[in-house]
C-alpha cells in the first residue's frame, strides 16, 4: 500500500517495559512516581468539561457543500504537547489522513476540511504556524490506501468526505534541561533553567512563530528515530533525551460545520477523555506513546502489543472469541494473509495503545491493548441517548442525529478482502485480561449476537426506538421513547419505517459515524450525509426521543438486568428556515444540541 508522507504519521512507540520487537513499545517510569507533582493515572473517564488527554471530534464533513473548521487548544501553560491527529472515515473508521502536531504552551492549531474540486476527496487547509510533522500539510488531500481496493475512484473519494477525528496527547514536551544519559524521568530540571530542552526551544512561539519547525532541525529530526537505549534502566531515558515527557493532558477542541450555499452552521466541543488518578482525585499522567512518522512495516505479532484493532493485530475471521478460554489473551496467528491488514508505523499510536502505567507489565502478552480499549469504551458507553427533533414543514425543518462510536473499531472491524464477496467482519475479544479475568468489570459491547453487515457497513442491532412507557425506576429513565411535545407517545406496538430498509423495530445503526434523520426519508437531511444515513419516519412531527443502547448483557450488580450500553457521542443537528421574505426577514438557521445520556 502506498501512502503520501502526510499519511505516514505514526509510529514507533517507545518502551520502558519488556522489549517486544524492533519498533514496539510504550514508555512509563517504573514504580509510577510523581513527576513534576503529577501522579500516574489509573482510570480513563469521560470529562464532560471537554478537556483531557484524548479528544474526539464526533463528526467532520466536506460533503454536500459543507466545510468543517477545527481548533485544537493546549491549555497547559507550562508544557508543550506532541499530539497525534487522525481523521477516520465514517463507514468503517479507516485512517484517511493523519499527522503529528507539536504544540507550545497555550498554543492553538486551526484547520479546515473541505472538498477538493479536482479529486473529489476531502483535503486539509491550514495557515497555522504551529509545528507539524511533516511540515507541508496545507492543501493535502486525504488518502484512500486503506479503503476497499475494488471501489471506484469516485466511491473511494466519497468515503473520505465524512468521518470523525481522534486527537491524542502522545507526550508532553518539557521546558527544562535535558538530564544526563542514565538519569531517570524525574532528573530533568524544572522549571526551565538556563539550559532549555532543544525540542521545546524549537517549537516555542516567539513573536507569533515557532523558532524552528524544519524537519532538518536536529531536535525535530530526532523524532524520526527509534532510540536504541529505550530499554535501558531507568525506563524512558531515551524518550527524555528526545525531549519527551509523560503526557498530562489539557487538550480541548472545537468544531464548526458551515454550509456556505445554505448559509447554515453548527458548532460544538470535542468529547474529552481524561487520564485520572482516583487516589488523589486529580488529572494524572499517562504513558508516552509517541512514535516517528514512518511507513516501516510492523509484523502483526508486534502490532498486537500496540493496538486492539482486529485488522491490524491479525484477528481471525469471525472472532478471537472462538479461541479456547485458556488461550484467550494469547496473541493468535491470522489464519491467512487476507485475514488481517499489514500494519505500518503510521498506524500507531491509536486510542487503544496502552496509556496507563499499570499496563506496562502486560505489553508482551498482547492484552494491555485490550485493557486500554475496554476502558476507553467504558468511558464512552451509555445506556440511552436522548435529544429533540423538529420536522415541521412550515419551517422546512430537518433534524439529523449523529452517533459517533470512536472506540468501536477496537472491537469489531470490516475486512474488505479482495472483493465484496470476500469481505468479512472480524472481532477482538476485549473481555479477558492476561489472567483470563474480566477487564475492569467490562465485557464486549459488540459480538456476532448484536452486529450485522449491510454491504461493507457494520451495523449494531437492538437499538430501541419506542418501548413501554411506565416501567419501574430506573428503567423508565432509559427505555426508548418517541414523543411529541404534548405527551403523544409512540408505544411498543407501533412500528417506525426505517429507511433504507423495511418497517422494523428495533433500529440498526450502521457505520462508525451513523446519521439518523427524522421524517425525511427522501431528503438529504440537515447535514447532507451520504455514507451512513438512515431515516426514522413516525407520526410525531416535533418532539423528543430517547433511543435505548443496551449493547450486550453485562455482569454488574443492580436492581434490573444490567446492560453494558454502547460507546456513543454526538448530537442533534437542526436546520430551520424563516421564509417571511415579504417582511424582509428570511434566512436559514442551524442549531446543535449535544446528546443527553444515561449510564446505568
Shape: globular
Q: Give a short account of the largest sheet.
A: 9 strands, antiparallel
> Average pLDDT value?
81
Structural class: mainly beta
N-C termini distance: 44 Å
Number of helices: 6
Radius of gyration: 24 Å
Please bin the fraction of helical residues. under 10%
Uncertain runs: 1-24, 227-235, 316-333, 432-442, 555-559
The counted number of beta strands is: 36
Strand-residue proportion: 25-35%
Write up this protein.
The chain is mostly beta strands and about 600 residues long. It is built from six helices and 36 strands. Strand 4 (about 80-90) and strand 5 form a beta hairpin.
Structure keywords:
single chain, 600 residues, mainly beta, disordered N terminus
Helix/strand layout:
Blueprint: E1 43-47, E2 54-61, E3 66-74, E4 80-89, E5 95-103, E6 108-115, E7 122-125, E8 131-133, E9 140-141, H1 153-159, E10 162-173, H2 198-203, E11 205-206, E12 209-210, H3 218-221, H4 237-241, E13 244-245, E14 251-259, E15 264-269, E16 271-277, E17 282-283, E18 297-298, H5 300-303, E19 343-344, H6 368-380, E20 381-382, E21 384-390, E22 398-404, E23 412-415, E24 424-427, E25 451-454, E26 457-463, E27 481-483, E28 497-499, E29 507-510, E30 513-518, E31 533-537, E32 542-548, E33 566-567, E34 569-580, E35 585-594, E36 596-598
Parallel strand pairs: 30-31
Antiparallel strand pairs: 1-16, 2-10, 2-16, 3-6, 3-14, 4-5, 4-10, 5-8, 6-7, 7-9, 10-13, 11-12, 14-15, 16-17, 18-19, 20-33, 21-32, 21-36, 22-30, 22-34, 23-24, 25-26, 26-29, 27-32, 28-31, 34-35
Amino acid at each position: 500500500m502506498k501512502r503520501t508522507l502526510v499519511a505516514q504519521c505514526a509510529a514507533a512507540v517507545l518502551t520502558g517495559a519488556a522489549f517486544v520487537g524492533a519498533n514496539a513499545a510504550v514508555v512509563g517510569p517504573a514504580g509510577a512516581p510523581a513527576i513534576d507533582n503529577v501522579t500516574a493515572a489509573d482510570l480513563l473517564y469521560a470529562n464532560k468539561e471537554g478537556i483531557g488527554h484524548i479528544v474526539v471530534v464526533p463528526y467532520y464533513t466536506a460533503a454536500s457543500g459543507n466545510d468543517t473548521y477545527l481548533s485544537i487548544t493546549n491549555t497547559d501553560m507550562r508544557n508543550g504537547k506532541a499530539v497525534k491527529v487522525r481523521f477516520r472515515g465514517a463507514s468503517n473508521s479507516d485512517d484517511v489522513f493523519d499527522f503529528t502536531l507539536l504544540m507550545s504552551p497555550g498554543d492553538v492549531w486551526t484547520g479546515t476540511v473541505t472538498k477538493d474540486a479536482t479529486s473529489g476527496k476531502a483535503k486539509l487547509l491550514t495557515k497555522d504556524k504551529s509545528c507539524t510533522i511533516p511540515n507541508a500539510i496545507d492543501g493535502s488531500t486525504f488518502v484512500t490506501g486503506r479503503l476497499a481496493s475494488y471501489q471506484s475512484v469516485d466511491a473511494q473519494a466519497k468515503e473520505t468526505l465524512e468521518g470523525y477525528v481522534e486527537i491524542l496527547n502522545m507526550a508532553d514536551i518539557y521546558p527544562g534541561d535535558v538530564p544526563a544519559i542514565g538519569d531517570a524521568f524525574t532528573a530533568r530540571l524544572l522549571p526551565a533553567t538556563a539550559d532549555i530542552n532543544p525540542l521545546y526551544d524549537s517549537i516555542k512561539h516567539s513573536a507569533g512563530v515557532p523558532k524552528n519547525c524544519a524537519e532538518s532541525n536536529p531536535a525535530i529530526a530526532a523524532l524520526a528515530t527509534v532510540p536504541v537505549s529505550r530499554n535501558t534502566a531507568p525506563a524512558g531515558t531515551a524518550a527524555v533525551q528526545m525531549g519527551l515527557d509523560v503526557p498530562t493532558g489539557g487538550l480541548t477542541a472545537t468544531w464548526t460545520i458551515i454550509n456556505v450555499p445554505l448559509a447554515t452552521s453548527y458548532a460544538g466541543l470535542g468529547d474529552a477523555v481524561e487520564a485520572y488518578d482516583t487516589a488523589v482525585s486529580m488529572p494524572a499522567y499517562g504513558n508516552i506513546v509517541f512514535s516517528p512518522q514512518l511507513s516501516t512495516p510492523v509484523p502483526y505479532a508486534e502490532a498486537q502489543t500496540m493496538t486492539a484493532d482486529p485488522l491490524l493485530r491479525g484477528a481471525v475471521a469471525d472472532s478471537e472469541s472462538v479461541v479456547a478460554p485458556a488461550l484467550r489473551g494469547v496473541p493468535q496467528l491470522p489464519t491467512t494473509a487476507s485475514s488481517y491488514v499489514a500494519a505500518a508505523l503510521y498506524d500507531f499510536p491509536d486510542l487503544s495503545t496502552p496509556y496507563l502505567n499499570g499496563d506496562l507489565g502486560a505489553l508482551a502478552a498482547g492484552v494491555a491493548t485490550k485493557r486500554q480499549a475496554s476502558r476507553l469504551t467504558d468511558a464512552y458507553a451509555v445506556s440511552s441517548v436522548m435529544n429533540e427533533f423538529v420536522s415541521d414543514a412550515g419551517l422546512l425543518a430537518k433534524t439529523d442525529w449523529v452517533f459517533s462510536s470512536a472506540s468501536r473499531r477496537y472491537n469489531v472491524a470490516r475486512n474488505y478482502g479482495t472483493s465484496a464477496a470476500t469481505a468479512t467482519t472480524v472481532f477482538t475479544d476485549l473481555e479477558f485480561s492476561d489472567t483470563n479475568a474480566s477487564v475492569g468489570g467490562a465485557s464486549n459491547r459488540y459480538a456476532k449476537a448484536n452486529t450485522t453487515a449491510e454491504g461493507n457497513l457494520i451495523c449494531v442491532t437492538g437499538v430501541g426506538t419506542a418501548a413501554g412507557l411506565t416501567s419501574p425506576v430506573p428503567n423508565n429513565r432509559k427505555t426508548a421513547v418517541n414523543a411529541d411535545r404534548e405527551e403523544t407517545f409512540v408505544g411498543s406496538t407501533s412500528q417506525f419505517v426505517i429507511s433504507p430498509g423495511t418497517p422494523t423495530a428495533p433500529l440498526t445503526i450502521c457505520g462508525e459515524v451513523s446519521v439518523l434523520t427524522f421524517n425525511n426519508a427522501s431528503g438529504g437531511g440537515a447535514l447532507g450525509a451520504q455514507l451512513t444515513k438512515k431515516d426514522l419516519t413516525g407520526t410525531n412531527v416535533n418532539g423528543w426521543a430517547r433511543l435505548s443502547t443496551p449493547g450486550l448483557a453485562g455482569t454488574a450488580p443492580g436492581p434490573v438486568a444490567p446492560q453494558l450500553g454502547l460507546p456513543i457521542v454526538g448530537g442533534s443537528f437542526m436546520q430551520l428556515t424563516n421564509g417571511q421574505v415579504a417582511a424582509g426577514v428570511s434566512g436559514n438557521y442551524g442549531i446543535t444540541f449535544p446528546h443527553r445520556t444515561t449510564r446505568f
